[in-house]
Amino acid sequence: VTPRYKVTSGDGIKAMSADFALLISHSSNQRVSLNREDPSLSLAFQSELPNGSLKLNANYAQTSTRISELADTGLIQADGTTRSKSFNGNYSHLFSDKLELSLNGGYSRVNYSGGPLTSYTLPSASVALNYSYNEFLEPFVQASFSHYQPVSIGDASDSTTIVTGANWKVTDRFNLGFNIGVNQVSAKTDRSN
Predict the structure, then answer these.
(1) Rounded to whole angstroms, how far apart are CA atoms 117 and 148?
(2) Which of the two residues, 103 and 4, has the higher pLDDT score?
(3) Under 8 Å CB-to-CB from 54, ≥6 apart: which residues?
(4) Residue 52's closest CA among 103, 16, 87?
(5) Burial class of residue 125 in the structure, from the number of CB atoms within 10 Å of its CB (0-12 exposed, 13-18 middle, 19+ buried)
(6) 82 with 72: CB under 8 angstroms?
(7) What is the tens place of the pLDDT at every residue in 77-100?
(8) Phi, psi at residue 71, to the nearest 5°?
(9) What are the CA-CA distances from residue 92 to residues 50, 75, 85, 110, 167 (Å)?
């Protein structure tokens, strides 16, 4: 059973929304899966600007680790609890009818309880530049960075990616995209133990 409540408000230029849900589940075998009441909350804000737009999102979710880790890693752990919090922002700016800049930033924190999984934080940022060459072809270049940091003991890592490519509108119903890039991951070993 999942009761859900959603509220939206907007005037055509600015829009806000709040979405709350509560997943209620009961198990016939408590050794496999516990009875649970898992809430989730999403808040969103969007504003159209003279030469672009601004979007902000905040999310909180509580789920069973058996569900979250199966979706993320394909592995099934003992039934515990995953609590995730995230905040994301996007700002886009049109320099002209053809050139658009997009800036993205985010921060997430995932906490695990009742199992062997390691809690972590993950800040990230990206910048993209899109050029509308014509109505069919749109080249782009994008750079992104993220930092994985275990909350307690573990190895931190940085990931940096640079990609360039293009989106090609072949027909009104068929689009193609191609890109090439490099990704560098650097790890910092925790020697505290």
Answers:
(1) 14
(2) 103
(3) 45, 46, 47, 89, 90, 91
(4) 103
(5) middle
(6) no
(7) 567 788 999 999 999 999 999 999
(8) -70, -40
(9) 11, 37, 24, 28, 18
